[in-house]
Design brief:
heterodimer, A: mainly alpha, MetI-like fold, two-stranded antiparallel ribbon, B: about 270 residues, mainly alpha
Chain lengths: ~400, ~270
């Protein structure tokens, strides 16, 4: 007992005991659900659960020609076991190949009369119900999607379609690659605009008298702490056709008719910049404050005009702050969902919107999972790159 | 840094900064007059002033119910996050530098992961546990994103905490638990309270998780605001937005007071 007490008091164990409750909570309620969700993108369980007996037999099939009659019989009994499972199977196969829903439905209807039939009769019956059951590609599709893991959804999420004759990159009708690119474009635009707008603000706050900088910080923090929904509501009022901004522009004679300022790309970027700007300014203020005031003076004393003293001496020293703030803004904006949903049009929706769509509206969790995996994977690569490549580069410059 | 001799640059930077501040504050300045309109449209200038929309919100059970749900969820989230987060922060603070870096990285994951991914994952997980659409589901979701803020805020206040005070307490015979309770916690209290404010607002303003984890019977204030903006923008939405401005301002003032108190204690401790 005494030994145990001493162990408890030992530094390492006490730390672990203090951290354990939160670590456990996050592991169970945060990291596990996300890991399980991401696994859905490569899992075949949704299909194998609907046709368990068929799955077992198909895994022994070599994939050549038609499977043995026993597989047909297994499918008949699987389809008879649960109408709901049969419906799920149809929906899932249909998302992989158009038309499969009715193929499965016909087989389900036919299988009611084939329950007690011999395997041979089962094969004939299914092929009678829909000739597709007599074609090897149909069985190859089911064979592929009932393996241990599938790459189908990860490929579909970057517009690569798997057909009978190998993989094919969708060109004209590409769906997701343009959305990933759009997400990137919006995130980069927001980040660059935030840097341009935020740098002078950080500069002024960092160099103001303590009293003035306290007030300016307050002005910066009120919008920072205000609910994103309250801010979005305000922007909808400001930017709408009859809103004050359009009234002002028309009164000034700049435009004759109200401009469309919201429910388009302009509105999305504007509101995102408004929400994310403080994330850039706050780290930058610290970076600017950390520069010894004498540096600028020294450059001036050596004859550098203010502009060149700034560009050649001071600006490089603030790069790490610009990078830190810019990186936070970029990472946060890449996952944006609420702003595009409220002030964007259909062509301004980012990847998150589609993850939500495939979860709620069109229930295809595997595709939602695959899109999430690409989004998270891309973010991880960017974080790693910034740690390995860009940060050392900035250190070299400064 | 730039003194008066470079005044033209200073003036330029200041004017630009003033415009950016206008951009940051303009939408907030619009909310107050619009919410006081006597008409039904969200236009400026308003046809006249009245408190009718404030009355409308206060008498509307939908808004009051949503406010109540949000308050309950945020209060429970804050309490649990405070306990889990403060304990974890003290544990992380005692670790070696390397372990600390790793722990902070892990704790930061919920802050930077796209909210939709977490929301969808929890939606599926909670449905499997039979928690779907309940208040518990929302609270669990909120704790995962609020507790990391507590950890980071408390760690920041521990950064300036003098480790020798713990040694002093130990040398006077205090067991570690007692030293933490009577020496450390009172000194880092401002940091813990700041973490509480962070956690409360994180939950109170949270919208993405709630959209997936909530249900028609458990709707929060942000959810009602979201529907209000999306479906029919009426002055009631601006009344609620104004209420949130008051909440945000109160939070900032409280945080500033805590920061000053924290600074005072730091100075006292290092006298």
């Amino acid at each position: 007992m005494a030994v145990f007490a001493r162990m408890l008091m030992s530094k390492g164990l006490a730390s672990i005991l203090l951290v354990a409750p939160l670590a456990l909570f996050l592991a169970v309620f945060y990291f596990y659900p996300i890991a399980a969700f991401l696994f859905r993108g490569v899992s075949t369980e949704e299909i194998t659960a609907t046709i368990p007996a068929t799955t077992v037999l198909l895994r022994e099939w070599d994939g050549e020609g038609l499977p043995p009659d026993s597989v047909f019989a297994a499918l008949v009994s699987d389809l008879n076991a649960s109408a709901q499972s049969a419906a799920i199977l149809g929906r899932r196969l249909n998302s992989l190949e158009a038309g499969m829903r009715s193929v499965v439905r016909k087989a389900t209807a036919a299988s009611r009369d084939l329950v007690a039939a011999s395997p041979e009769r089962a094969r004939e019956g299914l092929i009678n119900a829909d000739p597709k059951w007599g074609e090897p590609p149909t069985w190859q599709l089911i064979h592929r999607e009932t393996g241990t893991l599938t790459a189908t959804f990860l490929l579909a999420a970057i517009d690569i379609q798997r057909g009978a004759d190998g993989m094919e990159q969708r060109g004209e009708d590409a769906l997701f690659v343009p959305i990933f690119l759009r997400t990137l474009v919006i995130a980069v635009s927001v980040t660059l605009i935030c840097i341009c707008l935020g740098y002078p603000v950080a500069w002024v706050i960092a160099n103001a008298s303590p009293r003035a900088s306290g007030w300016l910080m307050l002005l910066l923090l009120v919008p920072f702490w205000l609910s994103i929904l309250a801010r979005t509501a305000a922007w909808v009022i400001v930017l709408q056709g009859t809103g004050p901004l359009n009234s002002l522009l028309m009164w000034l004679g700049v435009v004759d008719a109200p401009l469309q300022l919201i429910f388009n790309r302009f509105g999305v970027i504007l509101v995102m910049v408004h929400v994310l700007l403080p994330f850039l300014v706050l780290p930058l203020i610290n970076a600017i404050r950390a520069i010894p005031k004498s540096y600028f003076q020294a450059a001036s004393n050596l004859g550098a005009p203010p502009a060149s003293a700034f560009i050649r001496v001071v600006f490089p020293l603030t790069l790490s702050g610009v990078w830190a703030g810019g990186f936070i803004v970029f990472i946060l904006s890449i996952g944006y969902y609420i702003t595009p949903a409220l002030v964007g049009g259909p062509s301004d929706q980012m990847v998150s919107t589609f993850i939500a769509f495939y979860t709620n509206q069109s229930v295809n969790w595997s595709l939602a999972s695959a899109l999430s995996a690409w989004l998270l994977g891309g973010m991880l690569i960017l974080v790693a790159l910034s740690q390995r490549v860009v940060s050392p580069m900035i250190k070299k410059v400064t | 840094m730039i003194s008066s001799e470079h005044s033209s640059w200073t003036v330029l930077a200041r004017s630009f900064a003033a415009l950016v501040f206008l951009f940051l504050l303009l939408p907030l300045l619009v909310l107050v007059p619009v919410s006081l309109t006597s008409g039904t449209l969200l236009v400026l200038p308003t046809p006249g002033y009245s408190l009718r929309w404030y009355e409308d919100v206060l008498k509307n059970p939908i808004w009051i119910n949503a406010l109540w749900n949000s308050l309950v969820i945020a209060t429970i989230t804050t309490s649990v996050s405070l306990v889990l987060g403060t304990a974890a922060a003290i544990g992380i603070w005692r670790m070696s530098t390397r372990a600390r870096g790793l722990a902070i990285a892990v704790v930061s994951v919920p802050i930077v992961t796209p909210a939709v991914i977490a929301a969808v994952a929890m939606f599926i997980f909670h449905a499997g546990l039979g928690l779907g659409g309940t208040m518990s589901s929302i609270v669990i979701g909120h704790i995962t994103i609020a507790a990391p803020f507590v950890v980071i805020t408390v760690l920041a206040s521990l950064d300036v905490f003098d480790k020798r005070l713990m040694l002093a307490a130990a040398s006077l015979g205090a067991p570690p638990g007692r030293a933490i309770r009577h020496v450390m916690l009172p000194i880092i209290l401002p940091g813990i309270l700041a973490g509480a404010i962070f956690a409360f607002l994180t939950s109170f303003d949270e919208i993405v998780l709630v959209l997936f984890l909530g249900s028609p019977s458990v709707r929060t204030l942000p959810q009602e605001l979201f529907s209000g903006i999306r479906e029919q923008m009426s002055p009631t939405v601006t009344v609620v937005a104004n209420f949130l401005i008051v909440v945000a301002t109160a939070a900032i003032i409280a945080l500033e007071m805590l920061r000053r108190r924290g600074a005072d204690r730091y100075l006292q401790a290092n006298k």
